[in-house]
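PROTOCOL LOG
Step 1. Enter all chains and additional molecules of the complex.
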Amino acid sequence: MPRHEVVSPIPGVFYRRPDPDSDPFATEGQNVGADDTVCLVEVMKSFHQVPAGAAGTVVEFLVENEDVVDAGQVVAIIDGAGDGG
Amino acid sequence: MPIEVRKPGLSTTVQDAGRTGYYDLGIPPSGALDQYSLRAANLLVGNPVGAAALECVYLGPQLVFTEPAVVAVAGAEMAPRVNGEGRPLWESFDVRAGDVLDFGYIKAGARAYLAVSGGIDVPEVLGSRSTYGLGALGGLEGRPLQEGDTLPLGAGDGTAGRSVPEDLRPALGKDNEVRVVMGLYDHRLTEAGRKTFLDTTWTLTPVADRIGFRYKGPALETVEREQPFGAGHDPSNIVDAPYPIGSIQVPGGVEPIILHRDAVSGGGYMMIATVISGDLDVVAQSAPNTRTRFIELDLDAALAARADHRRRVQRLHEALG
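Step 2. Run joint prediction.
Step 3. Record the structure below.
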């Protein structure tokens, strides 16, 4: 199964939820589509959605909620959906 | 139109040397936050030093060129690519009609400047092509680029293969020193508050933008006083005063903010120090979590530092002349 790294394209604060009262975008073990948002990164007072980038199962998140991430940093791992996933 | 915007990047704006002469009316200078890198990029492609270029913050745009041009990228370490193939930073190179220019992830710094031979030829507003986003003024319709925008170019005659010597490229890192002159309101700090300001390694927060750079760290102790007529009740409040570009205000005595080139022109917070002009470029290239120490200079030392900065700019001109 191909392992896909979800990378934050920008530096900023990492969030798992769209807002503090909502459920997380995705949790470990959940199936996601390539275009599904898995987290937000906030910089310059605006929020940037980070898509999964590949369809499959979320294996793990590598960053704690509200940690500051760098551009290019791997924030989550997706186990690809198999053929071409 | 010679450039089509396929992806805008995070916040890509047209910026030049700035819009001087209107700050007293509340319109800030705007322009490239890192003026040195703007200058270098323009010199590399044979433009006047103050020509309009694209300031690309954290995440670069993807652009399609419909005409050949000579381009250069200076500033943040955000490597350009033509049709997916890497190109050097701090060096001019050719793009052909139909080429796609985009950027890799940013590795150091915060803002890359893309200069194109001929300059980005948006209309001048109050003598400048710079974008002032808060005022929806200048640049392309007064806002950052959007997908589907097109950018006009002036006439240029750049040469590929020109590069900035290594020793004239700024060092970018996650630890930096920013030199300041204390005042005008540092008398509002106690000795301990002043010492805290100068002894702390401050951390840049992700809210930093073209208006202000806000830093995390300990609270600064202020001198007790009676609230002056016309000032707010908070100990950090002053009777409203003009804010210099580069001034450092500390609302509530916490989280100092360096005002940069899109700043508001005045207000009621104490400004305890001002960043020397050359080091505004250092601030401009600070990414979130950059650790910063403020170094106090007296006025003579600040003027000497400005003379040094001007000599460095002169050397850049000689190298690319």
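Step 4. Note key features.
Residues 3-80 of chain A form a domain with the OB fold (Dihydrolipoamide Acetyltransferase, E2P) fold (CATH 2.40.50.100).
The two ends of chain A are 8 Å apart (CA to CA).
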